[in-house]
Design goal:
By secondary structure, the protein is an alpha+beta fold. The chain has 2 domains: 149 residues, Sandwich (Immunoglobulin-like), CATH 2.60.40.10; 211 residues, C8orf32 fold. It has 13 helices and 20 strands. Strands 1, 11, 13, 17 and 18 form a 5-stranded antiparallel β-sheet that branches. A hairpin with a 2-residue loop joins strand 5 and strand 6. Helix 3 crosses helix 5 and helix 5 runs antiparallel to helix 8. The chain is globular, with a radius of gyration of 24 Å.
């Protein structure tokens, strides 16, 4: 579906809502060994390290606070107005019509973003055919800029006429409509992760999205993923259909949340504290927007867990939605699906499987407020992945490397 750690040393637990707890949290151990002599934590340098991290955290919080102002805004009137705007074969007029009632850049940006996500569907058939967007090859020509400008105008007219695009069309159209309203916007090519197998693996540039400047701060938007998702055939890998379902997570996200599954090709868009490309590739896989929206902080901090047999992995995360049942799937053991299909009078029905209900294994956990904690003991050298399941829904996947 398109949406869309352990090391053997202690890791730092950053409590974003309580900077004062940072110094004490520096001694939190993520993975502990049954043989305590194997790993020695040198605490004599920890105070200096924590002070440095505290300064970085304060800087990061300024961006988070700014983002919070817009997360809490009510755009109902803007979203309602957008539904009345039609494209009349003139994208300059479209840019004017979308923003005419509004005076501030925030509402104008929202109107443009929502109109695109409402009206442009993902061109999954283009992807299935393995086609690529053909752009003019004019680098050796003096008038290349003019050629590219004319090509882009025709390209966007085609997107608007057909009401279909892939990420390149979504991001270019968003930038064009922002440009026409004098809103500073950029197209950002980069890396997007959509599959569990991508944890810990390098990949090429495969996506594009936008950054927009609002009140001196840059924010990230992905109109492609906000518009909906594609259903994929698990056997062939072909996309079967596009499901239109607006997802607000990809509207004005801060870098810390956006970089869970997006990473820019250009380093200028990587905000402090620096997240390297390798660290991005090593992040956990998040199965759904619901998980991304509700997950505030999670430990382990990396999706690649380097452990030894009999190690204990400590999981700790803040989750705003109440979790009643928690399970762990792996390549060693998976809880059977609770649902099965039966045929009654030539009709197929999906029913709950009473046998599977009896085979479910649940993980005991501690909960305090929105914070959940539990431990997992590595019992097999062949353990390859761990998958956290919240109320029977796959939530977070980690890759495991059991070292000898």
């Amino acid at each position: 579906m398109i949406l869309v750690p352990g090391v053997h040393l202690p890791l730092v637990s950053l409590h974003l809502n309580d900077p004062g707890s940072l110094l004490s949290s520096c001694l939190v151990i993520i993975i502990t060994s049954v043989d305590e002599n194997c790993y020695i934590y040198e605490q004599n340098h920890s105070l200096k390290r924590c002070i440095t991290l505290l300064l970085l955290l304060i800087s990061l919080q300024q961006t988070i606070v700014a983002q919070g102002r817009y997360d809490s805004m009510d755009f109902a009137s803007v979203d309602s107005f957008v539904l009345t705007v039609k494209y009349e074969n003139d994208y300059i007029k479209l840019a004017q019509d979308l923003t005419a009632p509004f005076t501030d850049d925030m509402d104008k940006t929202r109107a443009i973003f929502k109109w695109i996500t409402n009206n442009i569907t993902y061109d999954y058939r283009f992807i299935n055919k393995g086609r690529e967007i053909k752009k003019p090859d004019c680098e050796d020509k003096i008038d290349c800029i003019a050629i590219m400008r004319e090509w882009e105008n025709d390209y966007l007219k085609k997107v608007l006429k057909n009401k279909r695009a892939i990420c390149d069309g979504y991001s270019k159209l968003f930038k064009k409509l922002c440009d026409l309203n004098y809103i500073q916007c950029e197209v950002i090519p980069g890396y997007a992760r959509t599959k569990p197998y991508q944890i810990g693996n390098n990949m090429g540039v495969n996506h594009s999205w936008n950054a927009v400047l609002i009140d001196t701060s840059w924010y990230y938007l992905d109109a492609t993923w906000a518009a909906g998702y594609c259903v994929e055939d698990e056997e062939t890998g072909l996309l079967l259909k596009f499901v239109k379902e607006y997802r607000n997570y990809y509207w004005l996200s801060g870098f810390d949340r956006f970089s869970r599954n997006h990473y820019p090709q250009s380093g200028k868009w990587v905000e402090k504290p620096n997240l390297t490309k390798e660290q991005f590739f090593n992040k956990p896989h998040y199965f759904s927007v619901e998980v991304l929206e509700n997950l505030m902080e999670d430990i382990p901090l990396t999706g690649v867990l380097k452990v030894r047999k009999d190690d204990t992995i400590h999981f700790k995360f803040d989750y705003t939605k109440d979790i009643k049942l928690l399970q762990v799937n792996s390549n060693i053991f998976r809880n059977p699906s609770l649902w099965t299909t039966i045929t009654v009078k030539h009709k197929t029905k999906i029913v709950r499987d009473s046998w599977a209900e009896k085979k479910q294994v649940y993980i005991p956990f501690k909960k305090q407020g929105n914070t959940y904690q539990f431990d997992y003991i590595v019992k097999e050298n062949s353990l390859y992945y761990l998958e956290l399941v919240f109320d029977y829904k796959p939530a977070i996947r980690y890759r495991v490397r059991v070292e000898n």
